[in-house]
Amino acid sequence: MPRLRVNPIAFDMVMRNLIVNALQHHDRDHGTIILSAQSTDDAVMLSVVR
């Protein structure tokens, strides 16, 4: 994961919400949730895939 300069409380809340959402809407008994990040010159794209 790239280094980010963020408000740690807000970032924690956003990431928890994304992960919980992926868990709640997973349609199988077992599975994988993939977290990834990709950085460009001026931005970072975070991805949560279920």
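Next protein, fold it too.
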Amino acid sequence: MEKIKKEHIVDYLRATILAILLPVFLSGNVNAQQLSLAEKSVSSLGAENDALKLLQGNFDVKETIWSSPTSGPVYNTKLIARRQMIGSVLQEFMYAAPGTANSPVERIEYISFNRIEGRWRSISMDIRVPVGLMPAASFDRGQEGKIRLIFDPFPIAGKGSSVTGQMLRMDETINFKDPDHVIKEQHFILADGSGRSWLAHRYEYTKRK
């Protein structure tokens, strides 16, 4: 029963993400005869989204977690990421090993460069933690092979039996200068008045040959 419920949740959230993203990211599916020259230009991948094509494939992932500024690292090496381009969007599904079709999905992410806004946009979800959909965007186009995304603040569940929470801010740096070895680092800041930032998550991707 638990497995069925989990699969239903994943299917629902996957459909929700696609419903949000498709009208924004996949405007290139509109009949080309209806597009202006500017729209045709924007619908092309451009240099930024063309670079995402190099990140397609299957990756072994090492996850490192620091649950607080003073916590030691906890490692998870049993993750596999599958990436593919959908139009101008890079889709990533992260699975628990061995990464077969029946393995549980741990994380879903979509990322693309919006050529009109001149910045990166992404939306992700992690079914291991009850935080819902996590939209993010960069301030600008960033550096070649490196992206910094600022996430909308979101609540994390509090302790105890009652439904409480605490707001959290997060930024993520993606380094893909070597497309076969990608590193994502996520820094957290809790809304506790301290203003203290710490490296909370690191994902290290190694492409399978």
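About the second fold: The mean pLDDT is 85.
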